[in-house]
Design goal:
Length: 196
């Protein structure tokens, strides 16, 4: 349902699925709960609840030099020294000083891209498009909102709500000679949507 709603056609019966857990000790609980109902012609309907956690992406390059006035997260009188030729670009992972890396990570998480938790309710419809069930299509209609209780750097993040529509296709080609199956899928995430 999450990766490609067309895959729901592959279920053999009505199902309730649950998955969850903490990926790391420093991130909140993540999980998924889903229930689907299959009709005799393999059309499927499902209701799902997803709770993904989005941490930061890649850390950006920085500019080498000495920067004064940083009193938060520094122990050296508010001076941050990024090694290299002053004014030159330095890749984040080329910085050998782990204290500088830790400072930049905290600043990035707090001010540039804080991690956030979101909640997604999804209604899914999936149906075969061919008589042999090898070609199928699925659609997700999602209501998305962030977790208002998630705090980044002791600050509550703004409330955000929105909706999204995903469209997925799946083609399965049985290769009976080898006892295997070739499958190719296409999932178009958020082809329509709005976030406020």
């Amino acid at each position: 349902i999450w990766w490609n709603p067309a895959g729901l056609v592959q279920t053999e019966k009505n199902e309730i699925q649950w998955m969850g857990g903490d990926r790391l000790t420093s991130v909140p609980y993540t999980g998924m709960l889903s229930a689907n109902y299959m009709l005799q012609n393999r059309m499927n309907f499902a209701l799902s609840y997803f709770r993904p956690y989005h941490n930061t992406g890649f850390y950006p390059d920085v500019i080498a030099g000495n920067y004064e006035g940083f009193t938060k997260w520094t122990n050296n009188g508010g001076v941050l020294s990024i090694p290299g030729t002053p004014g030159s670009k330095v890749k984040f992972f080329d910085i050998a000083d782990t204290a500088v890396q830790d400072f930049l990570k905290k600043a990035y998480r707090a001010y540039i891209q804080p991690g956030f938790q979101e909640n997604i309710f999804a209604f899914t419809y999936a149906t075969p498009l061919s008589p042999d069930n090898n070609l199928s299509m699925g659609i997700n209609v999602k209501y998305i909102f962030n977790d208002g209780d998630y705090v980044a750097d002791q600050l509550l993040l703004n409330e955000v709500t929105g909706y999204g529509v995903d469209l997925g296709f799946l083609y399965r080609y049985p290769m009976r000679k080898w006892g295997r199956e070739f499958a190719v899928g296409l999932d178009l995430k958020d082809i329509a949507g709005q976030v406020r």
